[in-house]
Amino acid sequence: MIISDLFQETYLALLINKARSGLTMLGIIIGIGSVIAMVSIGQGASGTIESNIQALGSNLIIVMPGMQRNFGYGASSGRGNARSLTIDDADAIQNEVSFVKTVTKDVSGRYQVTAKGTNTNTQVIGTTSSYADVRNVQVESGNFISDQNVSGLSKVAVLGPTTRNDLFGENADPIGQTIKIKGIEFKVIGVTKSKGGSGFNDQDDMIYIPVSVAQKFLSGNQYLTTISVQATDQKSMTTVQEEITSLLLTRHKISDVANADFSIMNQSDIIQSASSITNTLTM
Question: Cα separation of 125 and 229, whole Å?
Fold first, then answer.
């Protein structure tokens, strides 16, 4: 039997059994298409998660109050809500830990904000001038929080574009306008560039004010919600994290790391864990 005969018999078999041949082809097409779609979705999700984490900052290490019982994921004792981190802790990290480029002192919470008959519930972050560098925040118009604003207890605010749109209208110019947070008036001095996101992860739905003002008029105490640390480079992040842990254990007079009243998240570890999860789901 020559090759041409094989092709002829194959053609006749397909022609005679049209329904069976069509269903077989359809199954193959759907199977291959499904595999391609699932791999593409997995890779797309991994890329989106990684870009969102990278948008939080560069070479970022985040220190939060509260005991972390399980690394990365799982239950933790009062994590983020406890009161154990102070401005003195942040200053000590800046001055005593090697390979640290910048440190920010942050107090955050959600508040009802009003302006000209409009209102919104948004995240308000009390911070310092270095926040813009550490968290990759760029100003579209006006200015960001300055050291003078912090030391002078200036009631000024920088709006994210989503918050600006909610309070003043799409692409409005709010510079010089007044908003109220917990009934306290703040003058708008700037608007940040869009970073993207949605829902609770919307990095554009934010208001930035001086950390000193947030502590005195909003939180009412001297404690910090987070300390954001920018390492000089990615290779130094593990060293920085270890030194911060040792320093804070000493400052807080804690001998056993298992009883630490703070937790630390390394940006590289977060990206690695997220990528591992999406890769596993894709597999």
Answer: 16
